[in-house]
Amino acid sequence: MSSISKTAVSRSRRVRACNHCRQFKIRCDSAELFPAPCSACHAKGRDCTVDSTFKPIRTRSLLKDVTTQLTLIQETLRDHDITIPRSSFVQDSPPLGDIFERPRLESAPEAPIPTPSVSSKDDVSFVGSQQLGDITLETDTIRELFEYFRRNHFLYFPILDEDFSATDLVQSCPLLFWTIIIIASRYHTRHCSIYRSLCDPYIETLSNALVHSIKSVRVIQAILYLCLWPLRISKQHGDPSLSYCGVAVNASLRLGLHKPVQEKESQNRGQAFVVDSEERMRTWRGCLYLSTQ
Fold this sequence. Notes:
Strand 1 and strand 2 form a beta hairpin. This protein is mostly helical. The protein is globular, with a radius of gyration of 24 Å. Helices cover 56% and strands 2% of the residues. The chain folds into two domains: 14-57; 118-291, no CATH class. The two termini are 48 Å apart. Helix 12 (217-228) runs parallel beside helix 15. It has a two-stranded antiparallel sheet.
């Protein structure tokens, strides 16, 4: 009995941090200040609780699940022509694309935030049907998937130019074109079957691109989008997003995306300088953003 009680006491003494500090992985001095709350809880006005059975919640995976469920609910409501009035908080909040694009200065005047819309360049009638492997997509399907990507993905990671179009991407970078298609089809309620059919031929196309030296900013952008919205995997340790992110950062450094481009230099270099300097800068910001997550 004495050995059991000593073990229980030793286990209880191992927990020296409160639940809040354990959840956010910050230094806790609750053991020194007991019975007073720790410094972090005292500064925030929270109750300082120490529970040996408390297990931190993995907020990142929980946020992804909630975001996926919310996207499916919004698509279902949109398919049935059901509109829900947005709250004042949502109306007053700027889109994440603007936060990613540039920080707003307090002294700067408030300006309306343009929301990307389907422009004339998004007319995919000139693209026609596209084939990857044995799968052929019609023009209407490509248009719907690109519009879906623009509304639900591009706003949260706007490294492309605002007027990007399927017509330009299918000619300049097929990998980026099919990356947008497969990401949008995975979360689209009506075209989710396309995602399952495209997985194998898309992985083959991606593998062929990664085998060779990356000389195009468009390929880097495709890899970054794939890091943020990866393909479906069976187990977490099989997620290659970290490896893809390393490839994107390495290729960006080699192409000099982290440095300003001189006009003469851009004329003498290859297709890596087809995109403008602003888009190159946004792509480098995307690399920094994903590599620090």
